[in-house]
Structure formats: C-alpha cells, structure tokens
Amino acid sequence: MSSVYKAYARLLKTHPMAVQCLQAGTLMGAGDVTSQMLIERKTFREYEWQRTARFFALGTFLVAPILSRWYGFLDQKLGSRKRISAFKKVALDQGIFAPSFLGVFMCVLGGSQGHSMAQIEQEIKTNYKDILLVNWSVWPAVQIINFSFIPLHHQVLVVQVFALFWNTYLAWKTNKSPTFSESH
C-alpha cells in the first residue's frame, strides 16, 4: 500500500491539477453511481450512464479546478493550518464561495442536461435553498478540519472523499425533481 501512496504523492507533486481533477471526477461519478444504485434503487437496465459521465465531467472540469484555485487563494491570503486562519477560511468558504458555487454548479448541471434557462431557474427555485441549508449543516465542520490539519495539496482530496456522500446527495436531489429529470 505504501508504494501506491508513494506513486500517488509523486503524481500529485508533479501533476497536481491533473491528479486533483481526475480524483474529483472519479469521486463525483462514484457519488452518482451510489445515488442511482443505493438511494434510487435503479436496476442495471434503468441505470443512466450518461448521468454518471456528466457528474464525472463536472468534477473533472469544473469542481476540482475551481476548488483548487479557491483553496490556493484562501491559503495565500489567510495562511495555513492555524486555527484562526481556518475559521476565517470557513467563514469565506461558506459565506461567499458555497452559495455562489452552488448556483454555478446547478446552472452548469442543468445546461449539461440540455435544460432550458426556464427549467434551470425552476430547479434553482425548487432546490437551491434546501441544498444550501444541508451544505451549511455539514460542510463547516469538514472544512474546519480540512483547513486546520490538512496540507494544501491534499485539501481537494479530503473534500472530495467526504464529498462522495455529498455528491450522492446532490445527484439524488438534482435528479429527483420533475424539472431536471424530464429530459434524461
């Protein structure tokens, strides 16, 4: 196992963005698989592969690059692994970043599903508040630990591992409403 970790650490050091993008995409895809198979209880025939591919792509090309840059910005402006810095980072992360990124995520997800702006707006009206409130009930604790104890180059991974559960919730929540599930 140590050789796997060493290879991972080497790749993370030499290709940090590529590794973070692939791990985020993989974990977001896994969240959708978990949602479809365990929460929604879809059969193999009902399983929507394109939906999982969509979540993989969103994690790879949207979530990881933005999180990586955001965490780097916070680290540069507020410092690393100090308790007061961690609390400031969480305040900015949850007060400014999370609400705006959630809106961006929901718009990009809807667009990737081929939805009209009217459908996307309805989905945001229907689910944004609930998702944001759930976000605020779980993520501050995760981020306090992440910003306090985890080195910057591992923060996206830590968030994405925890986000396996979050992505399962997001996949379920954003695909259960009639607005977003009509055109699957």
Describe the structure using short key phrases:
about 0% strand, about 85% helix, mainly alpha, about 180 residues, disordered C terminus
If you had to describe this structure to a student in words, what would you say it looks like?
With 184 residues, the chain is mostly helical. Helices cover 86% and strands 0% of the residues. The chain has seven helices and no strands. Helix 2 runs parallel beside helix 6 and helix 5 runs antiparallel to helix 6. The C terminus is likely disordered.
Produce the secondary structure layout.
Layout: H1 2-14, H2 16-39, H3 49-78, H4 83-112, H5 117-149, H6 152-176, H7 178-181
Helix pairs in contact: 1-2, 2-3, 2-6, 3-4, 3-6, 4-5, 5-6
In short:
The protein is built from seven helices and no strands.
